[in-house]
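Input.
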Amino acid sequence: MAKNQHTFEDLQRLLSLEQLEVNLFRGASRDIGTSRVFGGQVLAQAVLAAGLTVEDRNMHSLHSYFLRAGDPEASIVYDVDRSRDGRSFSSRRVVAIQHGRPIFNLAASFQVAEEGLEHQFESPDVPGPEELGLAMEVRELELEHLPQKLRRWLDRFGPWEFRAVRGDDSLARAPKPPFQEFWFRLNGDPGDDPLMNRALLAYLSDFHLIGTTTLPHGISWMQEELVMASLDHAMWFHRECKLDDWFLYVCDSPSTSGGRGLARGMIYDRQGRLVASTAQEGMIRLRREKITKEKRS
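Output.
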């Protein structure tokens, strides 16, 4: 199996922010083999930047837009606007900046902890991670035939481990229903800080989610003719959690149209509690030469 080289300590260093001013922070970038920064990294750093300006309340929702591709060779500055601090809720806006231009916007809301009504969608009845065995990784034989840049892209998973409920074949081109479930865990101790656990969950939520939109079309995300990019990302944190065990990520895609695809996800812990929900729309295009070839055939 392909082995990731980045450890949890590497991920912690990547997500750590330097405070430049009261509402100004700077984060590092990492080359993952593409011309852009991994969206989950920017999202997680923005979550941390917003949270570092809030006291005694936790983030319960975020809405964000990816405006430009981030430069993996340059650091990112996060400018936080303290929009409002009420008795129960606080609002923050974050702009991620590179080379003098915004690349990402985030709006987040924080709430004082309180009791209230509770219900949730039940966790699906699926095999546990121990029953699935093999992780969602590219086999060594496949890896040998991939370009060096794509190998570094796969290494972005770092300390995260994944196990697919429905099986995983990164090169498969047979159409499938627009649903997938997989278990994930973090190989490292994230500690008890609610903000860091939310940032890590946000980072993780960008893995595999938009890929769900390609399943009905018999397209592999590893195909060179496929162009994908995240357009936005929303997330809701329902219950407290610590990422020190396996979690189940349940994804579906209601629609693809107009060169875009929509995917939704729900994240459950081992006890079946729904801890977070997420939604993302992405650009999904086939390169023109692929489309032309299909029309001729």
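Residues 8-112+133-296 form a domain with the Porin fold (CATH 2.40.160.210).
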